[in-house]
Amino acid sequence: MTAFNMHEAKSQLSKLVERACTGEDVVIARNGKPAVRLVPVKNTEKTPRPIGLHAGMGWVSDDFNEPMPDDFMKFFE
What are the CA-CA distances from residue 58 to residues 41, 46, 61 (Å)? Predict the structure, then answer.
């Protein structure tokens, strides 16, 4: 763990962020006591799903576009 005081952190913020992004444990102290830890933000970008990921897993019946049977239509009245 590497601790820096507030003044050092203000003047070297970009370097401290770079060190935190490389995996180093960077702590900023206030009055000699640890106050915060710099940690990198996880990548939140979603990667596009590959085309055809579930190809062949679904199906559509041959009578999909046909009218519903009369005995089934009573549920929609």
Answer: 37, 24, 10
pLDDT (tens digit, 9 = 90+) per residue, 26-67?
Answer: 999 999 999 999 999 887 788 888 888 888 888 889 989 988
Per-residue pLDDT, 26:
95
Residue type, 76: F
Residue 75 lies in a domain: no
b (16+ CB within 10 A) / e for 48-58: eeeeeeeeeee
Q: What is the CATH number of the domain that holds 31?
A: 3.40.1620.10
For residue 9, the one-letter residue type is A
| Distance, CA of 73 to CA of 77 (rounded, Å) | 7
